[in-house]
Design goal:
The chain is α+β, with helices and mostly antiparallel strands. It has four helices and ten strands, in the order αβββββαββαβββα. The protein has an eight-stranded antiparallel barrel. Helix 1 runs antiparallel to helix 4.
């Protein structure tokens, strides 16, 4: 005996499929940025100091060299909880960005020791600022003492275009310095389904397909 009209069965199947698809986890996104080589460069300034002979004749440091900067990297945005005290654990949420899996071509700068920054930057609206010195980011510990030259960078990101300037160092005493300027633009979004997403899609599609292929039962 046919207890449910075919139109009602189709409606039920549609509702179940909608519920199944609506319950899927959100996709995870990784934004890929490509560097605009026409607006990006890195300048190398050798470290050290000129040596002088007993007669007072001093040498001259090599002049700075500028290299083109190109390539791509992933921009990852995240929210982290920053602890400001341990008893009780107080703190606040901070928006950060970081650059991952960089594929950078910097010509002779890489051979001289230039490293593209991968430490995080604090994001506020469209502005971000980063500093490689850990003392900069942990003032609540009562301060700390450190020595040496630390890299830093700052800029803006509006969701499509990133512009920034920064500094990187190499060497322990009288380090050499790299000053870089970079403009990069989004070229696509890499979406990675969470576990179970494809299975949910398959179940929904198969359910609709089964309803279409099922022969209508005879009314008794």
């Amino acid at each position: 005996m046919n207890l449910l009209p075919s139109t009602a069965r189709v409606a039920v199947a549609s509702v179940l499929t909608t519920v199944t698809l609506g319950a899927m986890p959100t996709l995870a996104h990784a934004l890929v940025l490509e560097i605009d080589a026409s607006q990006s460069s890195v300048t190398y300034s050798p470290g050290g100091f000129p040596l002088c002979d007993p007669d007072g004749n001093c040498g001259v440091l090599p002049p700075p060299q500028t290299f083109a900067l190109s390539g791509s990297f992933k921009l990852q945005q995240e929210t982290v909880f920053v602890t400001t005290s341990l008893f009780p654990p107080d703190g606040y949420e901070r928006q950060q960005i970081r650059f991952e899996t960089p594929v950078i071509e910097s010509g002779g700068a890489s051979a001289l020791g230039f490293d593209f920054p991968t430490y995080f930057a604090v994001l506020s609206g469209e502005d971000f600022v980063a500093n490689e010195n850990p003392c900069t980011w942990f003032p609540s510990t009562g301060g700390c003492w450190s020595m040496g030259a630390f890299g830093s960078y700052a800029g803006t990101f509006n969701g499509t275009t990133l512009s920034m300037t920064g500094t990187d160092y190499v060497g322990d005493f009288f380090p050499s310095r790299f000053d870089f300027t970079l403009v990069a633009r989004a070229v696509g979004v890499s979406t990675v389904p969470e576990p179970g997403t494809l299975a949910c899609l398959a179940i929904g599609v198969l359910g609709l397909g089964a309803m279409r292929r099922r022969p209508a039962p005879l009314n008794v």
